[in-house]
Amino acid sequence: xxxxxxxxxxxxxxxxxxxxxxxxxxxxxxxxxxxxxxxxxxxxxxxxxxxxxxxxxxxxxxxxxxxxxxxxxxxxxxxxxxxxxxxxxxxxxxxxxxxxxxxxxxxxxxxxxxxxxxxxxxxxxxxxxxxxxxxxxxxxxxxxxxxxxxxxxxxxxxxxxxxxxxxxxxxxxxxxxxxxxxxxxxxxxxxxxxxxxxxxxxxxxxxxxxxxxxxxxxxxxxxxxxxxxxxxxxxxxxxxxxxxxxxxxxxxxxxxxxxxxxxxxxxxxxxxxxxxxxxxxxxxxxxxxxxxxxx
Length: 295
Ligand SMILES: Nc1ncnc2c1ncn2[C@@H]1O[C@H](COP(=O)(O)OP(=O)(O)OP(=O)(O)O)[C@@H](O)[C@H]1O
Ligand SMILES: [Mg+2]
Fold this sequence. Notes:
globular, four-stranded antiparallel β-sheet, alpha/beta, PstB-like, binds magnesium ion, binds adenosine-5'-triphosphate, Rossmann fold, seven-stranded mixed β-sheet, 295 residues
């Protein structure tokens, strides 16, 4: 394991004689030990077992030797400053990075002890098991009904029209959208408001009963009422599913997650029980972030 001394404060880049006085108690220089995550990054019976993961965009290493377990039925929140690698790491979990030409993933990534990156793996099946909700809603240019029915149809989950109707209704109910759209299921999805589109995408993701749902800032386009509905849904889903949520809202992380993982410049600095991260973080970088000193 390499050790990398990373200077993370801009003050340290300024020549000494010109150094700007530091206003807060931020340490002048903080060392991140590569591959060393403080706290509790490992679990007894993990859904995901991720070891020494590195992600490159061309020559640039965006994820630096991260090892983490994600437990079954846990909600884990990924937090950290913009550009620290949260989305990149999340996308490794269902091979969404495959679609980015210059992106290469290294290390060992297992779902239920099976290699996610095995060349023989069926990626369509993987993404049915590990669904994803993106920051920007991306409904298909189809009807509301057909958006939700899309996955169940291609995976053959319903034999009769009435079964498909039930899946569509249940998924829309869980996403808190049913009452708003039940009378216009044939309307095109792209005509909905941004917040409705996002809840539709959540309904579409859960319609195939995935084992894991990856959510990349799912509430950033939602109002507080829709946000509360999504958070309720997360709590409900976590009874049977595993959920990984990237969020810039620390209140949201505190409300919905069991564990929180703090990323910084491509490193995984700390993973701990969410209460601990927000009340007594172990790493000084985590503390600086949650107290708003940077990020
Ligand atoms: N498609 C891409 N091509 C090249 N570089 C990329 C690409 N996507 C991300 N990166 C780089 O990888 C690093 C991590 O980006 P990433 O989007 O994972 O960060 P993030 O933590 O999700 O940030 P944010 O909170 O702003 O969404 C950044 O330096 C970014 O510029
Ligand atoms: Mg992101």
